[in-house]
Design goal:
Belongs to the GADD45 family. The chain is an alpha/beta fold. The chain has five helices and five strands, in the order αβαβαβαβαβ.
């Protein structure tokens, strides 16, 4: 590895950590303001009725979900809808961490918690969600699109 590659990897890792932290802050802030929609079907319903108020779609999976064909089809349709309606999208791995961030029990293996595979951040016009974390995540999505990466991926790490 060259020095440029090592420095580039370090910078990319720091950027990913910063964006992951911003995403967690955004989800907590949105949850406090009742601006989250959780679940694949609930998210699809909301986007069908009111896509203009959706500012971020988080699609979350872990390795065991990669073989779930139905979930992958839902993700493909949700991604297409988001691209058509200029909604930022993030693919996230780390369902356990996502459940912890949203205050749910960390045991997502037995499906006793909710469906965290799709989470929408809504931004109602009457009372807009204003936080630096939303700006940071949005900038990351914009930068990714400039690099032709339409659905950027993040990994949420256990803490």
């Amino acid at each position: 590895m060259t020095l440029e590659e090592v420095v580039g990897c370090d910078m990319a890792d720091k950027k990913m950590d910063t964006v992951s932290q911003a995403l967690e802050e955004l989800l907590v802030a949105a949850q406090r303001q009742d601006c989250l929609t959780v679940g694949v079907y609930e998210s699809a319903k909301l986007m069908n009725v009111d896509p203009d108020n959706v500012v971020l779609c988080v699609l979350a999976t872990d390795e065991e979900d990669e073989d779930d064909i139905a979930l992958q089809i839902h993700f493909t349709l949700l991604q297409a809808f988001c691209c058509e309606n200029d909604i930022n999208i993030l693919r996230v791995s780390g369902l356990r961490r996502l459940a912890q961030v949203l205050g749910e029990p960390a045991d997502v293996d037995n499906n006793s918690t909710g469906d965290f595979h799709c989470i929408l951040v809504n931004n109602p016009q009457c009372q807009p969600l204003k936080c630096q974390a939303l700006q940071e995540v949005g900038n990351y999505c914009d930068e990714s699109r400039c690099r032709n990466q339409w659905v950027p991926c993040l990994s949420l790490r256990e803490r």
